[in-house]
Amino acid sequence: MEVSSIGLSEHRVNGLKFSSGVFTNFTQDHMDYHKTMDNYRDAKSLLFKMLSNKDLAVFNSDDPNWLYFRDATKANIFTFENVDMSSAEKTSTDILQKVKFYVHKSDLSGSLIEIDGFQAKFKLLGAFNAYNLAAAYTTLLSFDFDKEKIITALTKATPPPGRLQVISSDYAGKKPTVIVDYAHTPDALENVLVTLRELKNENCKLITVFGCGGDRDKLKRAEMGKIASQYSENVVVTSDNPRSEDPELIIKDIMTGIDNKSTMFVEISRKEAIHKIIGKASHNDMILIAGKGHETYQEIKGVRTHFDDREVALEALKFQHSIENE
Fold first, then answer.
1. Are 279 and 209 in contact (CB under 8 A)?
2. Quick one: which of 206, 212, 213 has its CA closest to 229?
3. Using one digit for the tens of pLDDT, what is the confidence trace for 180-216?
């Protein structure tokens, strides 16, 4: 199960006995609750402190923070790492087993990845998903599952709805490629944009449509604006779930992180933003609609109304197709 840092802080899982804990990475999130990164890290470490010397702990040793969590646990340690990364800190003698992986190539249909000497085509995209696959493999390996059976099972894993989800292949080559993703933190947005930049061709413009949620961590807004403008040719700043906040003020917070304002435009209505950019983009372009992913609602002033980025994007693609074929 996924255990949140807030759940750990509030003792929500104290009645459970975990036999394994998995550390994937440590990046900024939940600052509205934890206030500092140190507090956030301490909260996450509670999971590993719950483990006994008979339990298992699986760590991404490419993230330097793994050492902090390693030192917090009595559990038996397994690690996974990308062979392109190197660190003297990984030579720790208390590791039961290291799993190495390497991404050979990736496109919108999936990734060719080598994990622990086994090469296979997986349906998940990007380096961050390669880490997730390696984490799953290492965890199952720590429980003595057969290596080949683990790989076979993982090749069947499909992306969750709203995670790097390509919207309709019916318009391939005729309309922009539209991708919906749940990325709503600086790290997640950067990971997705880095992945898409690796997948796009040189004639393709990468366009990012996103906003930030209201009544949540305000510190990440400018950072996400900076990341979106750094990796995208154009940025459309819009609303996410503004909740009780004024959407315009949230957008202003985001814009403080965007240096080159000439590459962006603002549209408060998320639906209008999606329709406008799909209407303007060329067939060579790639549009990322980030932040809501699988969500099927938008919350404004305490009221939730039906809203699905995937539905709106498909509607916009169909509309553009219809007016061009009249």
1. no
2. 206
3. 999 999 999 999 999 999 999 889 999 999 999 999 9
Q: Which residues contact 270 (CB under 8 A, 6 or more apart)?
A: 211, 238, 239, 240, 298, 307, 309, 312
pLDDT grade for 97, boundaries at 50, 70 and 90: very high
Please enumerate in sequence order all residues whose Cβ is within 8 A of that of 42, keeping only pairs 6 or more positions apart, or say none.
none
CB under 8 Å to 97, separation ≥6 — which residues?
A: 78, 79, 138, 141, 142
Identify the pLDDT of residue 170.
81
Q: What is the mean pLDDT of the chain?
A: 94
| pTM of the full structure | 0.83
Model pLDDT, residue 55: 98
- CA 45/CA 248 separation, integer angstroms: 37
Adjacent-strand bridge partners of 56? 20, 76
C-alpha angle 94-98-99 in degrees, rounded to nearest 5 = 160
End-to-end CA distance of the chain: give it in Å, rounded.
51
- Residue found by looking up tokens 């039961």 in the block: 96
Q: What backbone phi and psi angles, to 5 degrees, belong to 85?
A: -100, 150
pLDDT for 15-60, tens place per residue? 999 999 999 998 878 888 889 989 999 999 999 999 999 999 999 9
> Percent of the chain, pLDDT > 70?
97
CATH number of 165-324: 3.90.190.20
Beta bridge partners of 34: none
Nearest residue to 291 (alpha-carbon basis) of 239, 235, 230: 239
Specify the fold of 5-155. UDP-N-acetylmuramoyl-L-alanine:D-glutamate ligase (3.40.1190)
How many Cβ atoms sit within 10 Å of the Cβ of residue 69? 22
Of 278, 303, 273, which Cα lies nearest the Cα of 291?
Answer: 273
Domains of the chain: which residue ranges? 5-155, 165-324
Strand-strand pairing, 234-237 and 264-266: parallel
Beta bridge partners of 264: 235
Burial class (CB in 10 A: 0-12, 13-18, 19+), 323: exposed
**What is the rounded average pLDDT of the residues 166-188?**
90
